[in-house]
């Protein structure tokens, strides 16, 4: 019995619709995959306007050199997106800092003019007339990076910022730091996205006393630091483990002068990795200071770019295991341009390799 033409047309239409659906699904999958292995690079020229003096180690050139190195890396450029960033308002900075401190920074900076440079009254931080604006863009870079990752426009992010932040407490700037960029980022994740558990990792040569202090009683933020000891600022002893509800969510590893990649990597493998089995973070933030590099101007450790790449791979694996791959790095120290630039590229290489 011959098949009716209407039945054939119906089957053809169904097959065509099915084909269209498959093509659309493949397109969505390809687009999602293309976005998922992107690294958001957060930067603004405004941060170069924080003037600290020609001979100061935390100078604009350390950041402009790093940005140039990233932009010139043709092998990795296809993975990068460069979202626009804006300065953070008081609403965001207040997540980690007191109103009195925010007002103090504003009042001490707004009276400056021209090339005038003075010390912030709370500590060893040089400020100039555009320092508050630059510091707010540094905080804003972290917020923008988080938004990119949470919107799945990028799988990871690196905020190339200055001034650094991890020494700033809630009410005191010190150690070249005005606002605590990474602390605001952690609070923002919890406030805007409702994430419950944030891991902050800090491998700057100096202990991040400000970050530790802000979250010392907070069980929802785990702070892990591996740093040189004895060294500035003198905090970060291994018996500092948190207090109250935050007891057990601070983990410090002290390394003696001259320690290299082997001790850096083992600090992560033997301390951080086991600790995360219980903490189970929703997002990983990294205070990425490169002054532990063997060629750095200020530090006394002997890390290399290979060491930084190795710990980035460990962190990316932790992010994939616990945090749906969500991880953001924020620049802290690093005062020899060539060493810092090589180390940043090594981190970015590891991020692109682990997202493929």
Mean pLDDT, nearest integer?
93
Radius of gyration: 23 Å
Q: Report the CATH C-level class of the largest domain.
A: Alpha Beta
Shape: globular
Q: How many domains in all?
A: 2
The parts where pLDDT drops under 50 for at least 5 residues are 20-34
The number of helical segments is 10
CATH topology of the largest domain: Arginase, Chain A
Largest sheet: number of strands, sense, barrel closure: 8 strands, parallel
Query: End-to-end distance, in Å?
Result: 55 Å
Strand residue percentage: 5-15%
Strand arrangement across the biggest beta sheet:
2-1-5-10-9-6-7-8
Q: How many DSSP-defined strands?
A: 10
Approximate helicity band: 40-55%
* N to C succession of SSEs: HEHEHHEEHEHEHEEHEHEH
Would you identify the CATH H-level superfamily of the largest domain? Histone deacetylase domain
Would you mind describing this structure in some detail?
The chain has 356 residues and is α/β, with parallel strands linked by helices. It folds into two domains: 1-36; 38-355, Histone deacetylase domain (Arginase, Chain A), CATH 3.40.800. Helix content is 44%, strand content 12%. It has helices spanning 5-36, 60-71, 90-93, 99-110, 131-150, 181-193, 209-215, 261-279, 305-322, 337-355, and strands at 39-42, 80-81, 118-119, 126-127, 156-159, 198-202, 221-228, 250-255, 283-288, 327-331. The strands form two sheets. Strands 2-1-5-10-9-6-7-8 form an eight-stranded parallel sheet, sandwiched between helices. The chain has a two-stranded antiparallel sheet with strand order 3-4. Helix 2 packs across helix 10 (337-355), helix 5 crosses helix 6 (181-193) and helix 8 packs parallel to helix 9 (305-322). The protein is globular, with a radius of gyration of 23 Å. The termini are far apart.
């Amino acid at each position: 019995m011959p098949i009716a033409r209407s039945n054939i047309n119906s089957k053809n239409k169904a097959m065509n619709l099915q084909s269209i659906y498959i093509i659309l699904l493949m397109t969505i999958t390809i687009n999602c995959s293309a976005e998922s292995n992107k690294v958001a690079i957060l930067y603004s020229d405004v941060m170069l306007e924080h003037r600290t003096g020609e001979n100061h180690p935390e100078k604009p050139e350390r950041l402009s050199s790093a940005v140039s190195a990233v932009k010139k890396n043709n092998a990795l450029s296809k993975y990068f997106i460069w979202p626009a960033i804006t300065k953070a308002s008081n609403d965001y900075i207040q997540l980690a800092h007191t109103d009195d401190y925010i007002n103090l920074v504003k009042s001490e900076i707004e009276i400056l003019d021209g090339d005038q440079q003075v010390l912030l009254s709370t500590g060893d931080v040089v400020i100039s007339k555009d320092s508050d604006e630059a510091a707010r863009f540094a905080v804003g870079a972290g917020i923008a990076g988080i938004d990119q990752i949470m919107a799945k426009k990028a799988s990871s992010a690196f905020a190339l910022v200055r001034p650094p932040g991890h020494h700033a407490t809630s009410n005191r700037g010190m150690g070249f730091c005005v606002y605590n960029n990474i602390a605001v980022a952690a609070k923002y994740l919890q406030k805007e996205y409702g994430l419950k558990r944030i891991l902050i990792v800090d491998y700057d040569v100096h202990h991040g006393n400000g970050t530790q202090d802000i979250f010392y009683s907070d069980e929802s933020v785990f702070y892990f630091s591996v740093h040189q000891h004895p060294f500035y600022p003198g905090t970060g002893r291994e018996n500092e483990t948190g207090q109250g509800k935050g007891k057990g969510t601070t983990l410090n590893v002290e390394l003696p002068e001259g320690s290299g990649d082997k001790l850096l990597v083992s600090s992560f493998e033997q301390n951080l990795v086991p600790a995360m089995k219980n903490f189970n973070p929703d997002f990983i933030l990294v205070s990425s200071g490169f002054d532990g590099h063997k060629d750095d101007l200020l530090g006394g450790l002997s890390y290399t770019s290979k060491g930084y790449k190795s710990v980035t791979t460990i962190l990316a694996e932790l992010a994939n295991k616990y945090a749906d791959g969500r991880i953001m790095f924020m620049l802290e120290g690093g005062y020899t341009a060539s060493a810092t630039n090589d180390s940043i590229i090594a981190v970015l290489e590891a991020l692109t390799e682990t997202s493929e």
